[in-house]
TrEMBL record:
Annotated metabolic or biological route of this protein: Quinol/quinone metabolism; menaquinone biosynthesis
Species this protein is from: Paractinoplanes durhamensis
Reactions this protein catalyses: dehypoxanthine futalosine + S-adenosyl-L-methionine = cyclic dehypoxanthinylfutalosinate + 5'-deoxyadenosine + L-methionine + H(+)
InterPro entries recorded: Aldolase_TIM (IPR013785), CofH/MnqC-like_C (IPR045567), Cyclic_DHFL_synthase_mqnC (IPR022431), F420 (IPR034405), FO_synthase_su2 (IPR020050), rSAM (IPR007197), rSAM_sf (IPR058240)
EC number(s) reported in the record: 1.21.98.1
Protein name: Cyclic dehypoxanthine futalosine synthase
Cofactor: record remark: Binds 1 [4Fe-4S] cluster. The cluster is coordinated with 3 cysteines and an exchangeable S-adenosyl-L-methionine.
Function: Radical SAM enzyme that catalyzes the cyclization of dehypoxanthine futalosine (DHFL) into cyclic dehypoxanthine futalosine (CDHFL), a step in the biosynthesis of menaquinone (MK, vitamin K2).
CDD domains referenced in this protein's UniProt entry, alphabetically: Radical_SAM (cd01335)
Family: Belongs to the radical SAM superfamily. MqnC family.
PANTHER family assigned: FO SYNTHASE (COFH), LIPOYL SYNTHASE 2
Reported cofactor(s): [4Fe-4S] cluster
Occurrences of domain Radical SAM core (ranges): 54-303
Gene for this chain: mqnC
Length: 409
């Protein structure tokens, strides 16, 4: 119980599985006592996942190019066309990295890159088809709505045609990338050349209608207001409502666990280095944790909530497990985009499992669609491969192949 009856009643309704309005979410975000907020959010997690399992994934983020025409102000990764440091990897290099990732247990690759002025739909078709042909067991969870809009524009085709073609070529799931902030004011301030938040939602709706599911993300900390953060999740929830109401469903996803197009929501925090925003604003740890809890209370229609240990740190990631989170995301064997902007947190397989277990949860290795591949009920069930470390290869840390890590064994 809190000292405020209105807050108590909203928390109780949300914890009981009822829907809260954006206005109520904003009130909880700004005014609810932290412990009551976290307890209500964790009640929802326990009801959704009564087995106490918290999942993780092994994947590799492989960048095909850093050339981009969109020049987002928060981005430290891209280079403008014709810049001397611009590059695009040939297919052989991408396949080599996929092969390395599989050797380390990856079940997923996230192919990520800039909006290259010459990369239309055919480029992505050959990229996805090439990976699937060489490694049919790898799930391709890649690109985001802004890449889809860009490739459709380059080729002068519809969004739907672009989606159908890249899906047929092998894309299994759309990453929720490029959402950053969906409301117009903060989006224009940090990514003036990017398509609008409404267009991001439109692409996701078309993908969901065509049986391609996705995740949804949010980057917080670039000067947006609390109300704009809530508006961001309102737009995503409405998009999911539409998918559920119309029966849009990815046939590969287990329907007893998830209906609709978005499988998970993943908020993360803006990183301040080497970009034009120069870290003038940043989300605090408490802002992030409170938002995690509010997201769990607000998204009555999205199954999973993921913590971003990469941007907030492992302690904060572990704390988020008590605020409604049921997934710690990936051991990113390679990550360059956020790391280029200053994300320094690193981990390994043993440590991620240890973080989950010492939060009194049961760790489970999952695939892209949240199917459990292995549940580590006791330490005897734990994997033994010491090579599975994050950023074992990263251009964000020249000259360093492996990093000092906490020995969590
Ligand atoms: S965030 Fe993506 S679209 Fe924006 S500049 Fe960086 S690579 Fe380009």
């Amino acid at each position: 119980m809190t000292a405020n009856r209105e807050i108590d009643s909203i928390l109780q309704r949300a914890a009981d599985g009822g829907r809260i309005t954006p206005e109520e979410a904003l009130l909880l975000y700004t005014d609810a006592p932290f412990h009551a907020l976290g307890e209500a959010a964790d009640t929802i997690r326990r009801r959704r996942f009564p087995d106490g399992v918290v999942t993780y994934l092994i994947d590799r983020n492989i960048n095909y190019t850093n050339v981009c025409v969109t020049a987002c102000k928060f981005c430290a990764f891209f280079r403008a066309p014709k810049h001397k440091d611009g590059w695009a990897h040939p297919m052989e290099e991408i396949l080599r990295r996929c092969g390395e990732a599989i050797d380390l247990g990856a079940t997923q690759v996230m192919l990520q890159g800039g909006h290259h002025p010459e990369f239309g739909v055919a480029y992505y078709e050959s990229l996805f088809a090439g990976v699937k042909e060489a490694y049919p067991q790898l799930m391709i969870h890649s690109i985001g709505p802004s890449e889809i809009l860009h490739m459709a524009k380059v080729d002068g085709v519809s969004i739907e045609e672009a989606i159908l073609r890249i899906k047929a070529a092998g894309l299994d799931s759309i990453a929720g990338a490029g959402a950053e902030m969906l409301p117009q004011r903060p989006r224009k301030a940090i990514a003036p050349l990017k398509e609008s938040g409404e267009r991001w939602i439109e692409v996701m709706t078309i993908a969901h209608r065509n049986g391609l599911s996705s995740t949804a993300t949010m980057m917080m900390g670039t000067g947006e207001t609390h109300a704009e953060r809530i508006e961001h999740i309102r737009m995503i929830r409405d998009c999911q409502d539409l998918a559920v109401a119309n029966g849009y469903q990815d046939s590969a996803v287990e329907t007893s666990h998830q209906v609709g197009g978005f499988r998970a929501f993943i908020p993360w925090t803006y990183q301040p280095e080497n970009n034009h925003l120069k870290g003038r604003t940043q989300a605090t740890t408490m802002e992030y944790l409170r938002f995690i809890a509010v997201s769990r209370l607000f998204f009555d229609n999205i199954a999973h909530l993921q913590a971003s240990w990469l941007t907030t740190g492992k302690d904060v990631g572990q704390l988020a497990l008590h605020l409604g989170v049921d997934d710690l995301g990936s051991i990113m064997l390679e990550e360059n985009v956020i790391s280029s902007a200053g994300a320094r947190h690193r981990s390994n397989l043993h440590e991620l499992i240890w973080m989950i277990r010492t939060a009194d949860r049961i760790p489970a290795w999952r695939d892209t669609l949240y199917n459990h591949l292995q549940v580590h009920r006791t330490e005897a069930d734990d994997p033994t491969d010491d090579r599975v470390v994050s950023h074992f290869s990263s251009i964000a840390m020249p000259g360093r192949k492996t990093l000092p890590l906490v020995d969590a064994k």
